[in-house]
Amino acid sequence: MKRDSRLSSVLHALLHMAANDGPMTSEALAHCMNTNPVVVRRTMAGLREAGLVRSEKGHNGGWTLGRDLNAVTLRDIHMALGEPAIFAMGNRNEAPQCLVEQAVNTALDDTFHEIETLLIERFGRLTLAQLAEDFARRLAAHRQQTGKQENAV
């Protein structure tokens, strides 16, 4: 089953935007994300509606962050993406007649709900600023190891 990697992709794009001095075009973000500019525009539209990013048309236009990195949590981004399912697993039958399957569904549903609640709470404590700080530390260490000043992104 194919995994939903939109959260990971969007976080990647947002960190590139945070590290960039000006707006980034859909084409530039698509290059960073190894995808198509149309996919970037479609994904960013949901983030724009949530106020997480802004877009400007024209010669110097592109995408910019709409809020301070400290004010954006992974939960905010997850919600802006339409709260995609956390798990690819699910019940075989949502309304079973079999009592065994009812017991299985109850156990799975309770467990999935508990784990998803914990994950969403954790997402609410992680900010883009924290991810950007981690990236900055990794970049500094990379530069120190290689003696090069490239961006390593």
Automatic annotation (TrEMBL):
Source organism superkingdom: Bacteria
SUPFAM superfamilies named in the record: Winged helix' DNA-binding domain (SSF46785)
Name assigned to this protein: Rrf2 family transcriptional regulator
Organism listed in the record: Phyllobacterium phragmitis
